[in-house]
Amino acid sequence: MMLKLIKLEWKKNGIGKYVRDAIILAAVLCLFLFALAYLGIANDPDTGVPDAAPGNHAISAPVELFTSMSFLVFTSVMLSSFIVSAYKNKTMNIMFSYPIKRQKILISQMLSVWIFGFGALVMTKLLAYGCIFLGSQFMVSSFPLDFDMTAPGFYVQLLAKSFVTVTMSFIALFVGLAMKSSKATIISSFLLIILTQANIGSFTMSDNIVLPVVLTIISLIFACLSVCGVESRDLM
User: Fold this and answer.
1) What is the pLDDT of residues 140-192, one digit of tens each?
2) Which of 29, 86, 199, 227 is the most exposed place for a label (fewest CB within 10 A)?
3) How many C-beta neighbours within 10 Å does residue 166 have?
4) pTM for the full model?
5) Short-list 170, 196, 200, 169, CA closest to 65
């Protein structure tokens, strides 16, 4: 039943356009990160060395930074379109008229976005790392290559970080539903980026091991709060 509802959400919201947008975004990110590594766009014009923020001295840092930033916003935009806009446009009335619990419908909408966002982010990261690895066979990177695509730990870490990033979008969804605003959902995703990627002197939030765990727990709590009470919640 849940799988059918997820497929219905993809069909209803025209998942094809999101596939297209994800491919375009992935291509742009890969091109930018390749240029960052091999074409010197991050180099200081006076010294000729990369002018990077603290903690971003190796290539994996900008890869994780730009892919995570982009897909956190991308996923939040999808949640806004799939759920918040459905409330505002009253199309949720039709969904809630089905002989299915509202909670199941809302969960299926959230899962349909999460699954797509997670898959797209993982594929984009793999593509970006793959492009940089291939480039290293012919060119010299401005940043040290601190990843090993033959090591199982590389993929475990990639999947874990992608899970945390996409799950954080549920915080943005909760804010959007609470404020009854699609814009609030998207703005919240930008605020989350500032929180998770902030630099304070030599201290970087992205290097904090505890923060991703805390954010994941908070995100799941907000996801539960978004679902709880939906049976009696008034439509926007």
Assistant:
1) 888 888 899 999 999 999 999 999 999 999 999 989 888 888 888 999 998 88
2) 199
3) 26
4) 0.88
5) 196
